[in-house]
Amino acid sequence: MAKEMIIVLDFGGQYNQLIARRVRECNVYAEVHPYTLTLDKIKEMNPKGIIFTGGPNSVYDDASPRYGKEIFDIGVPILGICYGSQLMAYTLGGEVKTAPVSEYGRTETFIDTGSASSDNQNTDVEVESSYISSKLFDGVSSKVNTWMSHTDYIAKVPEGFRITAHTKDCPVAAMEDEKRNFYATQFHPEVMHTEQGQKIISNFVYKVCGCTGDWRMDSFVETTIKQIREKVGNGKVLCALSGGVDSSVAAVLLSKAVGKQLTCVFVDHGLLRKNEGDEVEAVFGPDGPYDLNFIRVNAQDRFYIKLAGVTEPEDKRKIIGEEFIRVFEEEAKKIGAVDFLVQGTIYPDVIESGLGKSAVIKSHHNVGGLPDYVDFKEIIEPLRMLFKDEVRKAGLELGIPDYLVFRQPFPGPGLGIRIVGDITAEKVAMVQDADAIYREEIDKAYDEGLLKTKPNQYFAALTNMRSVGVMGDFRTYDYAVALRAVNTSDFMTADCTDIPFEVLQRVMNRIINEVKGVNRVMYDLTSKPPGTIEME
Ligand code: XMP
């Protein structure tokens, strides 16, 4: 198990998990904790370093989240980012002011290794000129584009600090006190738009904190299994298995932790892809490679009845989410004395459901869409802090076959959010057939070399638009199918995939010819943002 740990103290910024992820990418274990974590607890955790995140507040506002000077006395290196950098400056006797010019987005930044910021226009900044080199910026170019997002800035660095970077409008884009191991950047090294940001994080954990890099995904798996065992004891656990990547990884993880105390319930809500119910059963059921207690519940009718006439996407999600939980509760009652419910929630589900500080975009049924009352003692979400690619790594570590691990994601509410407008069994059949054709043709195009890589997610959706067409000599008035394909690494942002026209045409031809009720096929070109990946 990893012994080295970096604590990321969360002051409410948007990128907090991203910071932890960047540290983990350096093979050093990182955990995000709220800024209310006590000093005693921090000392007990024995971190190799601490990172203060950004946040929306101003340090001179008394109500803002903060630590006192004491945190700087525990002898652990600290990196402050954005608000965290201002907090460091303010607490240690520097000065933070509202900047005359706010900086947002990509900003040209000068790394002042070798000389202090002599071209600085701001005269109330005290600059030391004896600066030679910086562990934090070791190997980083003297001019980089960084990602800024601030209205306050450090106007005067505390005693003992040197300025190590500046921008046109920000005199202290970075500062450090090498003796005490305190480092700060006004910009966000954790976001992809900051050039060499990963190098800066890596320098902090290796060169400043002295980590050796003892964390790998196997440590996550090992630690999580141990924590689950401690939490569950002899209790019974129910896992909501959908057959998707996340819940499959969660189920196998749980099964390794608690063996037959786990029962996996697979609800076929009638909103799955074509033949998917049988495919999931083939893998996780009694004839598959895993020794799981597996229950398949065919609940199609029940879901269709609840969803009849419902058109609002958020309502559909909540209804599907609630019905899911009710089915689980019923299954749990049959098994008796089930204490824990496992869900494969991953980090993007958590932020997009607005459980962090960000606005609600969609209530993913496995998080924000949960009903107020859930009849389980506790919900276990072992993947809650991981991004999709990290979940896949964990899956491989657990020995789950590649074809399952690299499966494209499928949302919990399934085709329910791929049918725009009201849901009927006929529409489900249409979208299932169109989607199966599309996936088949993408596979074929990939095998033929027409596509170099497969899109990260691709599917057919049924629009709510009916239009006039002509087939044979007859007028039709049928539905339009929308094809979607996106390239993305984290599903938070995405680009439309450039699928060769020839492939799109093949798909269109087959859908029109083979799927009854569809007379038009469209390709959705929208990126995320401004669109989302799913159409609802
Ligand atoms: P969006 O549409 O939000 O999708 O850009 C991002 C990723 O999340 C999946 N998604 C969901 N997954 N419940 C889920 O479990 C949901 O309600 C839900 N909505 C979207 C989507 O398929 C994509 O991978």
Fill in the keyword field for this structure:
binds xanthosine-5'-monophosphate; nine-stranded mixed β-sheet; 24% strand; 31% helix; 18 strands; 536 residues; alpha/beta; single chain; five-stranded parallel β-sheet; globular
Overview of the structural elements:
It is a single chain. This protein has a nine-stranded mixed beta sheet, sandwiched between helices. It has a five-stranded parallel beta sheet with strand order 12-11-10-13-14, sandwiched between helices. Strands 15, 16, 17 and 18 form a four-stranded mixed beta sheet that branches. It has helices spanning 16-25, 39-45, 83-91, 197-208, 217-232, 245-258, 276-284, 300-307, 313-335, 347-352, 388-397, 402-405, 425-447, 501-514; strands spanning 5-10, 29-34, 49-52, 78-81, 95-111, 143-156, 162-167, 174-177, 182-185, 236-240, 262-268, 293-298, 338-342, 378-380, 457-471, 474-487, 495-496, 518-523. With 536 residues, the protein is an alpha/beta fold. Helix content is 31%, strand content 24%. Bound molecules: xanthosine-5'-monophosphate. Xanthosine-5'-monophosphate binds at residues 317, 352, 362, 364-366, 409, 411-413, 417, 457, 491, 528, 532-534.
